[in-house]
Every structure is written in C-alpha cells, then in structure tokens.
Specification:
There is one protein chain. The protein is of the alpha/beta class. 25% of the residues lie in helices and 31% in strands. The strands form three sheets. Strands 4, 5, 6, 7, 8, 9, 10, 11 and 12 form a nine-stranded mixed sheet that branches. Strand 4 (58-62), helix 2 and strand 5 (83-88) form a beta-alpha-beta unit. It starts with 9 loop residues before the first strand and ends in a 6-residue tail after the last helix. Residues 1-8 have low confidence and may be disordered.
C-alpha cells in the first residue's frame, strides 16, 4: 500500500560526499530528496498531522533526517508555519534537505536546514524562540534490538547519539512558555517519554494511540506536551491505519489522496 512513485536517480558528487538520490512527490507543491539512508515512513505523516502548526508559528524539527516532517507542512499554504528549522546531525541528510530546498519547491525564506547536535543547540538556535518542536526519535533504547548494518540507520533507529531525555531538554531550551513539543514513539516507551517531558518541565497534555486496525494493539503513540503546562492529559480516540479497501479515510486525508488505488 505504498504511495511512493518511481523516480529518476541522480548522482551527487561533491568532494568526499557522493550518493544517489531520487525525489518523492509530496502533493503538487513539494517533492522531497530521499536516499536509502535517509527516507521516511508513515509515522512522519502521522506526527506532522498531529503537531499541526499554525501559520504564525516558528517551529523546529529535531533529528529531521531528510526533512520530511517540516516539508509536509509546506504542501499547502494554509498548513505552512511562518518559519521551520530542521536540525539534523548527519551531513548527507542535511545535504538532501538542501537539495530539496533548491529543487523541491520549499520556500527558501521559510525553511532552514541546520546541521547540529540537538544536545548542543546553545549558540546555534535562540532559547525560547519557538512555538512548536517536533521529533520522531530513535525507537530503540541503547543496548536493545539488532543494530542495522549502516551507521545512518543505527543513528535513526537506536539511541546512539541521543536519548529521550536529550530531546526533551533540547525542546525545553527552544520552546517559549506554553510552546508545544510533539513526539511519536513505540507504546512500550510511553512511561519513559512522559517522565522525560516532566523532568524538562514539559507537561504531557494530549495522547493518541495508533493502531493498524480497530481490534489490534497500538504500534505507535503520538504525544503533545506544553512547556510550563498544568497537569491534565487528554486521551484521544485511536488513529486507525487500515479501512475498507486499504487505508482509512483519515490516513487518506493525511496523504492527500481521494481514495485507495
């Protein structure tokens, strides 16, 4: 049930950095530079929709990879924030975002790739300057799971370069009072994420579980916290991935598709 399309492969040769990439269309306005090392999945679409920035918001996506989450916001002007910063540690992923910025239809005056370690943002980005921070973090805690063969996948999937506490501390530094942090993670990590948010003085406020079908256990959760918020957690109805004939109506709307093919 993939929405991906075949695209021509391009070879970038810039000094020591050489890689093949393709463009994935994200609606009519934007196409995203992707590679086998830095691509995206359904969870990025879900988090992008869950976070739903306002047009006046200044936003920051941590561990942005190929920049999929902020790129999705720019598919339509009414969903696009005022400015979006995409923080990523890995040089190739940052280069992919730069290619998307040059050739993929993103607004150069509103989308800003930032090569940085999210644990060391002081002096890189301004404290308290952001309305929204998002992060699709590594799902596997350190020392668990089978490590992927390539370093890029290891960093994306395992807590090698950052842990949940690092993400929440970075968000606490970036967010204004009342600003939002939105993350996705596996259900078994829910307690870890809630504890990390609260330790960073970000109060969990909204939770939504994601299920493949109505009668299956959740495989993902979406959680929003507010900087300086008061305790009260709203649990929303589950997000169901599959519907009659393929994707559910809600997922088709996020994909900007009229019907299952």
């Amino acid at each position: 049930m993939s929405l991906r399309r075949k695209a021509k492969a391009f070879l970038l040769n810039g000094g020591a950095m050489e890689f093949r990439y393709t463009f994935e269309p994200l609606g009519e306005r934007v196409r995203l530079c992707v590679t086998p090392q830095h691509k995206f999945g359904t969870d990025a679409f879900l988090l992008s929709d869950f976070a739903a920035p306002r047009r006046k918001d200044v936003v920051c996506d941590l561990g942005s990879g190929c920049g999929i989450i902020p790129a999705l916001w720019f598919r339509q002007e009414q969903t696009a924030p005022s400015r979006a910063y995409a923080v990523e540690l890995q040089p190739q992923a940052v280069r992919q975002m730069q290619i998307t910025l040059q050739e993929g239809g993103l607004p150069k005056e509103r989308f800003f790739p930032v090569q940085a370690d999210l644990r060391k943002l002081r002096g890189v980005l301004s404290a308290g300057a952001f309305d929204l921070v998002t992060c699709n973090p590594p799902y596997k805690s350190a020392g668990t799971g089978i490590l992927s063969e390539d370093a890029a996948s290891q960093i994306a999937r395992h807590e090698i370069m950052c842990v949940t506490d690092d993400v929440c501390r970075a968000a606490a530094y970036l967010l204004r009072y009342g600003g939002r942090l939105c993350v996705c993670q596996r259900p078994e990590r829910l307690a870890d994420v809630i504890c990390a948010m609260r330790a960073a003085k970000i109060e969990p406020k909204r939770l939504r579980m994601v299920q493949q079908r109505e009668h299956t256990a959740p495989w993902l959760f979406l959680l929003e916290g507010r900087a300086g918020g008061k305790p009260f957690l709203q649990v929303e109805k589950p997000f169901i991935i599959e519907g009659e004939g393929g994707f559910s109506r809600e997922l088709l709307d996020i994909y900007q598709k009229e019907e299952n093919l």
